[in-house]
Amino acid sequence: MSTATSKELTPNAEAAEPNKPPNYKRLTDDDLFRHSSQYRFWSFTPEQLTQKRIQVNAQATSSVGESLRNFISENQANLAEEDIKSIEEKAVPVTMEEEIKLVSIYAKKLQGIAQHLNLPTEVVGTSITFFRRFYLENSVLQMHPKLIVLTTIFLACKSENYFIGIDSFSQKTKRPKDSILKYEFQLLESLRFSLLVHHPFKPLHGFFLDIQAVLHGKVDLKYMGQIYDKCKKTITEALLTDVVYFYTPPQITLAALLLEDEALTTRYLELKFHGNFQAASDSTNQESNEVISKSNLTINFDVLMNLITSCKQQIEKPTTVSVEEAIAIDAKVQFCSDPNKLLRKLKRRPTDSSLTQFPTDKRPKVSD
Amino acid sequence: MEYTKEKKVGEGTYAVVYLGTKQSTGRSIAVKEIKSSAFKDGLDMSAIREVKYLQEIQHENVIELVDIFLASENLNLVLEFLPSDLEVIIKDKSILFTPADIKSWMLMTLRGVHHCHRNFILHRDLKPNNLLIAPDGQIKVADFGLARTVPSPHEILTSNVVTRWYRAPELLFGAKHYTSAIDVWSVGVIFAELMLRIPYLPGKSDIDQVEVTFRALGTPTDRDWPDVSSFPAYNKLQMYTPPSREELRRRFIAASENALDYLCGMLTMNPQKRWNTVQCLESEYFKEAPSPTEPSKIKIS
C-alpha cells in the first residue's frame, strides 16, 4: 500500500463557486409546488371553485330529474295522484349549498372514524382531503357520502404507506370487504389519479424549528410545544374547509400559527422580513440566520400578512349544519336516488312487483 | 380506444407490459396493465406508489406518465416507450462505449435522481435495469414501485429495499432510518459497473452482500462512521482495510483522479458523509475532459 501517492478522498473544500451560465436559475420551492398535482388539479380561485361545484350539481340535478320523470311515467298506472305529488315535492334534488353541507357533515364523521382507528395525523388529513376532492368531481346525488367514507380511508392508508390489509380493515370498521373495495377505482379516478397530498403539517415542523432559531432565547420550548400541538389540531380543522383550495400549505400553517399566537407569529415574520438577526447570531443554525435576500422575495410582508389573516378568518368559520338540517338534506338525497323509499315512508306504497325498480337502487327491497 | 396494446413485452408479479400506440398522435407508448386480481387488498401498493410519484415528476430524465385509464377492472399506466436500458447495454459485449458516454449517462441519471430528491422522493430501487434509454439517447429513471417520500427524522422504515447488489451499507446493516443517500450509493455502484462492464458488488445472498461490499471497500469503523459498531450485525463482521488509492486506480484502470473522487464520494460508507446529488453534479469529474457525449450521439446499436 503506497501512502505517498494516496490522496485525500474528500472533495476540494476551497473550490470556488463555479461560474454560472447567463441563463442560470435555481428552482425555488414555489416553482416545485407549481408542478405538483395539488397545484395543477386542486388549487382554485373562489370563483373557479364555485363554478366547479355549480357544474357538478347541475349535471347531477338534471340526470336525477330525468330519472324521476322516467320513474313516474313508467309507473303512472300504479301511482296515485298524491304519490306523484309527494315525489315532486319531496324528491327534490339538493342545491349546491346543501351538497356542501352534507359533504362537510360526512367529512367530520370520516375524521372521527379515522381518529378512532388511531391513524397518524397525516393519514387522517389525507383521508379528509381525498373525500372532499371526490365531491369536487361527483355529486352527493350520484354517490351518497356514507358509501365512500371507508373506501377513502382505506385508500389514504395505502397511499400514505400506512398499509392495513382489507381483512383487518373490514374487521375494525365492521363493514363487509366488498363494500369498501368496490369503489376504489372510482375514487382513484375521481382523484384524477393524483395521490400525493402536501399537508400543512410538514411546514409546521419547519416553522416550529425556525421560530425557535429566529426568536432564540425569547421563546419557551415548552410553550412552543403546546403551540405545536394546538396548531396540529387547527390544521386538521382547516383541512375541512375550502382554504385548502385557495392557499398553499405553508400559508395555511402560518394562518394556524396566527390563530394560536398572533403576537408571536407577527414578530417572527417581521424579523424574517425586516430583521437583521443579530439576536440569533449565536445560533449554530446557519440557514435560519440568513435574512431573506431581497432578490428571492416573491411576496412582501404586508401582502403575506393580509393573505394569512384572511386564511385565518376562513378557518375560524367552518361550515356548520344543524342536525335537523342535516337530516332534511339527507332525506332529499335518499328520496331522489330512490323514490320507492319515499313511497314506503309514506306507507302508501303498492305491492313490490307493481313498481319497476328505480335504476340506481341496488339494495334488496324490503316490504314495510 | 385511444391506446392500442400491440405486443406483450414483459410480465412481472403485479403487471403486464405491452407496446402500443397512442391513436390520436401515432406516438409509440408502453402500457403497464396492473393485475387487479393478483392483490386481494384492492389496488396494489406498487401501483399506488408508481402512480403517486410519477404524477408529481415531469423531468427529461424521469420516465413520463402519459396517461392512466381503467379498462375491464384493470388499471393501465400509459408510459413513454423506451426501447433499451443500461443493463442490456452493459451486458451486450458487442457494444463499445467510451468514458465520455459513461459520463453522459451518469449526468442524465443524476439529474433525474436529483429531481426526485428535491421533490422529496426516494427511488429505493436504482439499478441499470431501471435506467431506461429513450430513442434520442436520454436516460429515464423508471419503476417507482418502491419509491417513498423522504422520511421525517424519526420515522421507522423497512431496510428491505433496493436490489441486493446496489444496496447501501446502512441498508445491509438493517438501519431503521435512512435518507436519500441510499440512492446515491446505488448510482455509485452503477458507475463502477459501467466502467468494469461487470457487476461491481455481486453478492450471492444478503449475507454474502455484506462480505462482498466490505471486502471491496473496507469495513467501516466508528472513526469514519460514528456508532456504526452499534448495529447488531456489526460484531460478526470480518474487518477489511479500505482500498488504497493505488488499488482503486488498478481496479478502475481508465478512471481519472476526478472520476475516482466522484466514485469514492458516492461510495462513502457513512451516509452522512456520502455525497448528495448536488455534490455529485458539481464535481470536477463532470467539468474535466472529456465532455459528456451528446445523448443522441451515443452509439448503442
Automatic annotation (TrEMBL), chain A:
InterPro entries: Cyclin-like_dom, Cyclin-like_sf, Cyclin/Ssn8, Cyclin_C_2, Cyclin_N, CyclinH/Ccl1. Belongs to the cyclin family. Cyclin C subfamily. It holds the Pfam family Cyclin_N. GO terms for molecular function: cyclin-dependent protein serine/threonine kinase regulator activity. Residues 1-25, 348-368 are annotated as: Disordered. This is Cyclin-like domain-containing protein. One of its GO terms (cellular component) is transcription factor TFIIK complex. Residues 108-189 form the Cyclin-like domain. CDD domains: CYCLIN_CCNH_rpt1, CYCLIN_CCNH_rpt2. Keywords: Cyclin.
From TrEMBL, chain B:
Pfam families: Pkinase. Its main location: nucleus. It is found in: Nucleus. Its EC number is 2.7.11.23. Keywords: ATP-binding, Cell cycle, Cell division, Kinase, Nucleotide-binding, Nucleus, Phosphoprotein, Serine/threonine-protein kinase, Transferase. The keyword Cell cycle applies. One of its GO terms (biological process) is positive regulation of transcription elongation by RNA polymerase II. The active site is at residue 125. GO terms for cellular component: cytoplasm; transcription factor TFIIK complex. ATP binds at residues 9-17, 32, 40. GO terms for molecular function: ATP binding; cyclin-dependent protein serine/threonine kinase activity; RNA polymerase II CTD heptapeptide repeat kinase activity. PROSITE patterns: PROTEIN_KINASE_ATP, PROTEIN_KINASE_DOM, PROTEIN_KINASE_ST. Residues 3-286 form the Protein kinase domain. Belongs to the protein kinase superfamily. CMGC Ser/Thr protein kinase family. CDC2/CDKX subfamily. PANTHER family: CELL DIVISION PROTEIN KINASE, CYCLIN-DEPENDENT KINASE 7. This is [RNA-polymerase]-subunit kinase. It comes from Zygotorulaspora mrakii (Zygosaccharomyces mrakii).
